[in-house]
TrEMBL record:
It comes from Citrus sinensis. This is Post-GPI attachment to proteins factor 3. Coiled coil: none annotated. PANTHER family: PER1-RELATED, POST-GPI ATTACHMENT TO PROTEINS FACTOR 3. Belongs to the PGAP3 family. GO terms for cellular component: Golgi membrane. Its main location: Golgi. One of its GO terms (biological process) is GPI anchor biosynthetic process. It is a multi-pass membrane protein. It holds the Pfam family Per1. Keywords: Golgi apparatus, GPI-anchor biosynthesis, Membrane, Transmembrane, Transmembrane helix.
Length: 255
């Protein structure tokens, strides 16, 4: 691939994609994207840091109910989010260092699972769905859809075009939900929500209009990984604010 790219460059041709991927430099004989690997690892550690800070705030700093449960109604959902996000960055790091079919499927499936769960989370939080039965009614069809999609990708056809459409639809839908909520809510940290929505929107554009790797290392996808670092930091900051905000609101309410 890279030899061909060298020839193309000499005659003044622009880089092309091979099997839907840009040609990257080979390090130690294997096709690696060192920048994407490093950024995935960094994202994983930022996620872990965010999740830990949320955990410490809820269980050690904010008051707990007599049964040792948190007052905040979305604790469990954010725990699942943290685990799915860390899982997704882990497989992203693995995939960008060993690009084979198995790692590609694992990376892709984890990313879809995270995106699907984020969509459920957006609906539940923005519409303040607290009732268990109502939550199941929202989540069940979406979980069924996402599971079917993942099984299709893994065992029928790893269709990148179709996957792009599904991910884009779920991504745009949840950004709209958060944006509308940020517009109407009087949440004290709604500006953080706004920043994340705008940032995620821009990051999504990077996913769609990808450009060839700069010097064989940094492409649009790596840049997308980089954009996620400040966004993740801000997102966990919003989650912590939200848990504090809801806990204070619940404690103020006369019993
Ligand atoms: Zn990636």
């Amino acid at each position: 691939m890279l030899a061909r790219e060298g020839e193309r460059e000499k005659v003044g041709d622009k880089p092309v994609k091979y099997h839907g991927k840009w040609p990257f430099r080979r390090v130690y004989g294997i096709q690696v994207e060192p920048v994407a690997v490093a950024l995935s690892a960094l994202n994983l550690s930022i996620q872990f840091h965010g999740w830990m800070s949320f955990f410490i705030l809820l269980y050690y700093k904010l008051p707990l109910r007599p049964d040792k449960k948190t007052y905040y109604e979305y604790t469990g959902l954010w725990h699942i989010y943290g685990i799915l996000a860390m899982n997704s960055w882990f497989w992203s790091a693995v995939f960008h260092s060993r690009d084979v079919e198995l790692t590609e499927k694992l990376d892709c499936s984890s990313a879809v699972a995270l995106l699907g769960f984020n969509f459920i989370l957006a609906i539940l939080r923005a519409f303040s769905v607290r009732d268990e039965a109502a939550r199941v009614m929202v989540a069940a069809p979406l979980i069924a859809f996402v599971t079917t999609h993942i099984l299709y990708l893994n065992f029928y056809k790893l269709d990148h075009g179709l996957n792009m459409k599904v991910c884009l639809a779920m991504g745009v839908a949840q950004l709209l939900i958060w944006a509308i909520w940020a517009g109407v809510t009087r949440h004290p940290s709604r500006w953080k929500l706004w920043l994340v929505v705008v940032g995620e929107g821009l990051a999504m554009l990077l996913q769609i209009y990808d450009f060839p790797p700069y010097r064989g290392f940094v492409d649009a996808h790596a840049l997308y990984h980089a954009a996620n670092i400040p966004l993740t930091y801000l997102w966990w900051s919003f989650i912590r604010d939200d848990s504090e905000f809801r806990t204070t609101a619940l404690l103020k309410k006369p019993k």
